[in-house]
Amino acid sequence: MKLYWVTTEDHDEDWFIVASSLKEAATLHEDMEGYDPGDANAEEILTIPERVPAEKGWPPKELLIALGATFLLNDESRVVEIAGRTFCEGMLQ
User: Fold this and answer.
1) Second label for 48, Cα 20 to 30 Å away, from 30, 58, 59, 84?
2) What is d(CA 17, CA 54) in angstroms, rounded to the nearest whole number?
3) Cα dist from 31 to 35, 37, 41, 60, whole Å
């Protein structure tokens, strides 16, 4: 399994997805957030070690922390640093 960052053009619901491929990550995001096929783009962030249990879909905070994430802001919009990068959650207003 891998951790992906998935975005859409409107950036309203950008967030991490656990999946086995780029296509699966984008499709899961589209299905779970109500986007049309082809609306989401996924980027691989890291491979999840086999010793770390992970299920497909949105990762819980505990999984992100186990993968080395630091929550810089855990408010209305979460900001997470992981794998040397900073990611900001999209928020539907």
Assistant:
1) 30
2) 11
3) 6, 8, 13, 18
Cβ proximity of 78 and 61 under 8 Å: no
pLDDT at residue number 73: 83
DSSP-assigned beta bridge partners for residue 57: 18
User: How many C-beta neighbours within 10 Å does residue 59 have?
Assistant: 22
Characterise 17 by phi-psi region: left (phi > 0), alpha (psi -120 to 50), beta (else).
Answer: beta
What the block records as the tokens of 20 is 């086995």
Among the listed residues 25, 79, 26, the one whose alpha carbon sits nearest the alpha carbon of residue 54: 25
Query: Which residue in the block uniquely carries the two structure tokens 């991490």?
Result: 16
pTM for the predicted model, two decimal places: 0.92
